[in-house]
């Protein structure tokens, strides 16, 4: 898989250009509050400044995070009104939906099915709950694979309507407003993809989730790792570091610290990324490290595949998947 398959450069660069403008419009003069590390609460050290946002790095667990952070009301307005948000939800998704289904969502559904069946007998009844289910593509694919119902929690009226038209069960609320009676009875597997890095407060999100989970319920989520090789090398030039969307970059060390604080048990952490080397190749002009510069310039396609596999196996990819449960 190549980055171009799921993020065509022309349309993705257009989105990032719109995002940079919106960052000024919606956050240029808003109230901001200092925050500690999302994982361990320690005071961070300034790493870099980007599009009006300061990114700090925790000296203890290496979490990368935005601080001072705009108040949550500013994000509410941004996600309701901003042109870049509308562009992502309409133009970008429509033009990449088929490719993302084949390259992203089908493989992800296979991985989630495997993780579920490693811990839950396939004969047992359970429901999948997709938090921030968007267009419902993952929900469609996991229902096919598991023959179990999938509930989509989606607060956006447009996306919730699209999911309903597909015949999916939808809870049109923010997670903070969801109560246990909104969800099916019995054991549940909650999932969330590419959402954690956006959260204004990961602690508050996980606390709300924990409160609607029952003992034995699982939570599987993906996010961006701040210790992933492409992010570490590209740093402020990384397109993944995209304010105001991406605020939190936890990592395989810091995520268990946060989960433990909330009262959730970490079961597994992997970095099944496939794109780190390709992303680095596409942004080689920003890489000054001599080893990586020469590797990207001279390596064969086979060498790059071997290196990408090593990145995955050593938990060094910027794409991270976490499995946890409520005791």
Describe the protein's topology.
Elements: H1 3-6, H2 9-27, E1 32-33, E2 45-50, E3 53-57, E4 64-66, E5 69-70, H3 72-81, H4 83-117, E6 126-131, H5 137-146, E7 150-153, H6 157-165, E8 169-171, E9 187-192, H7 202-212, E10 218-224, H8 229-234, E11 248-249, H9 254-262, E12 265-270, H10 276-282, H11 290-298, H12 301-313, E13 319-325
Parallel strand pairs: 6-7, 6-9, 7-8, 9-10
Antiparallel strand pairs: 1-5, 2-3, 3-4, 4-11, 10-13, 12-13
What would you say this structure looks like, in words?
This protein has 327 residues and is an alpha/beta fold. Helix content is 43%, strand content 18%. The chain has a seven-stranded mixed β-sheet, sandwiched between helices. The longest helix has 35 residues, at 83-117.
End-to-end separation in angstroms reads 37 Å
> Helix proportion of residues, in percent?
40-55%
Share of residues in strands: 15-25%
Flag low-confidence runs.
Answer: none
Strand order of the largest sheet: 8-7-6-9-10-13-12
Average residue-wise pLDDT: 93
Structural class determined from secondary elements:
alpha/beta
């Amino acid at each position: 898989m190549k980055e171009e398959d799921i993020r065509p450069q022309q349309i993705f660069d257009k989105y990032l250009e719109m995002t940079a403008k919106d960052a000024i419009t919606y956050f240029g003069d808003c109230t901001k509050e200092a925050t500690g590390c999302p994982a361990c609460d320690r005071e961070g050290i300034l790493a870099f400044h980007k599009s009006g946002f300061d990114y700090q790095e925790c000296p203890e667990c290496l979490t990368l995070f935005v601080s001072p952070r705009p108040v949550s009301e500013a994000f509410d307005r941004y996600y309701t009104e901003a042109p870049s948000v509308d562009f992502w939800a309409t133009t970008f998704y429509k033009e990449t939906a088929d490719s993302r289904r084949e390259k992203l969502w089908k493989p992800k559904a296979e991985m989630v099915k495997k993780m579920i069946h490693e811990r839950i007998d396939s004969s047992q009844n359970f429901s999948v709950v997709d938090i921030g289910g968007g267009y419902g593509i993952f929900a469609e694919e996991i229902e096919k694979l598991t023959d179990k119902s999938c509930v989509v929690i989606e607060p956006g009226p447009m996306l919730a309507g699209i999911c309903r038209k597909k015949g999916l069960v939808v809870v049109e609320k923010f997670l903070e407003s969801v109560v246990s009676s909104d969800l099916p009875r019995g054991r549940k597997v909650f999932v969330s993809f590419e959402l954690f890095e956006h959260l204004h407060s990961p602690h508050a999100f996980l606390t709300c989730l924990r409160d609607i989970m029952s003992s034995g319920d699982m939570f599987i989520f993906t996010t961006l790792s701040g210790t992933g090789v492409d992010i570490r090398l590209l740093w402020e030039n990384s397109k993944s570091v995209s304010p105001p969307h991406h605020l939190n970059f936890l990592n395989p060390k810091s995520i268990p610290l946060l989960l433990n604080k909330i009262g959730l048990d970490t079961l597994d952490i992997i970095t099944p990324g496939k794109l780190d080397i390709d992303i680095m190749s596409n942004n080689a002009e920003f890489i000054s490290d001599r080893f990586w510069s020469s590797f990207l310039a001279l390596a064969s396609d086979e060498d790059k595949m071997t290196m990408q596999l090593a990145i995955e196996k050593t938990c060094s990819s910027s794409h991270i998947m976490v499995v946890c449960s409520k005791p």
